[in-house]
Amino acid sequence: MPAQLNHTIVWSSDQRKSAEFLAEMLGRPAPARFGHFDVVELDNGVSLDFADAEGPIRPQHYAFLIGEPDFDAVLGRIKARKLDHWADPARRRPGEVNHNDGGRGVYFLGPDGHFLEVITRPYGC
Questions:
Q1: pLDDT at 59 over 90
Q2: Burial letters for 65-103: b for 16+ Cβ neighbours within 10 Å, e otherwise?
Q3: What is the pLDDT of residues 4-51, one digit of tens each?
Q4: Chain-wide mean pLDDT for the chain?
Q5: In this structure, are residues 105 and 114 in contact, taking their beta carbons and an 8 Å threshold?
Q6: 3-class DSSP string for the chain
Q7: Is 0.90 surpassed by the pTM of this model?
Q8: Which residues on neighbouring strands pair with residue 39, listed in sequence order?
Q9: Any idea of the CA torsion for 51, 120, 100, 105, to the nearest 10 degrees?
Q10: What's the pLDDT score for residue 65?
């Protein structure tokens, strides 16, 4: 059997709020409760399992490959919420979208400072 990512834990200061934020931004179903996690399911069988952290949150980077129509919807939600967003991970191009590898991409922050990215084409393809 090939190795596949199944799930990862996303540490949060308010797991429900963070899970709901991501689900809404990506146009996913509402998070499901599993044990003590709030779970956001993705289309490729991977889930992000949100859990409350006991200490400071160390921000991580999460990138999501989405379709062109979905990108328009996510960017619309970013703008509707007046969230800061950038075309690059160094945050040198605020308010812009990148066009790397013939697709589009944008970075924005989640409630706990996790660096979220949506792209329409995998890098290097």
A1: yes
A2: bbeeeebeebbeebeeeeeebbbeeeeeeeeebbebeeb
A3: 999 999 999 999 999 999 999 999 999 999 999 999 999 999 999 999
A4: 97
A5: no
A6: CCCCCCEEEEEECCHHHHHHHHHHHHCCCCCEEECCEEEEECCCCCEEEEEECCCCCCCCEEEEECCHHHHHHHHHHHHHCCCCEECCCCCCCECCCECHHHCCEEEEECCCCCEEEEECCCCCC
A7: yes
A8: 32, 49
A9: -50
A10: 98
Q: Are 89 and 108 in contact (CB under 8 A)?
A: no
Write down how long the chain is. 125
Contacts of 71-75 spanning 24+ positions with Cβ under 8 A: 71/104, 71/106, 71/118, 71/120, 73/27, 74/25, 74/26, 74/27, 74/106, 74/118, 75/106
- Picking from 56, 51, 66, 43, the residue whose alpha carbon sits closest to that of residue 117 is 66
Q: Which CATH class is domain 7-119?
A: alpha beta
